[in-house]
Design brief:
The chain has helices spanning 8-24, 26-44; strands spanning 3-6, 59-62, 68-75, 80-88. The chain is of the alpha+beta class. It has a single domain (3-88), classed as RelE-like (YaeB-like fold, 2-Layer Sandwich). The protein has a four-stranded mixed β-sheet. A hairpin with a 5-residue loop joins strand 2 (59-62) and strand 3 (68-75). The protein is globular. It starts with a strand and ends in an 8-residue tail after the last strand.
């Protein structure tokens, strides 16, 4: 299992998504949190190199139920995954 750390942008993206779903329906926010935790904890942290390469040395994994992808990097030597962003699928490129 890899250690997972969040970049500042990823934390902001997560909060923004949760707040958006919370405004629509608190149950949606809870489901979003649960799926995000599963995506990162069950899939990315256990086998981060299994998922698709994205831009440069980043990788991505899409959430199943919500239209978001988790963008991250992997440090094999230190066994660390850094979450760089949690992006809505409408985001087309790095930093957009």
């Amino acid at each position: 299992m890899y250690k997972v750390i969040y970049g500042e942008d990823a934390e902001r993206h997560e909060v923004e998504a949760i707040e958006w779903y919370q405004a629509i329906n608190p149950n949606l926010a809870v489901r979003f949190i649960e799926e995000l935790e599963e995506t990162i904890g069950k899939y990315i942290a256990k086998s981060p190199t299994q998922w698709r390469t994205y831009i440069g040395n980043t990788r991505k994994l899409s959430m199943k139920e919500f239209p978001y992808k988790v963008i991250y990097t992997v440090n094999e030597e230190k066994k660390v995954v850094q979450i760089l962003g949690i992006w809505h699928h409408k985001r087309r490129e790095w930093g957009s």
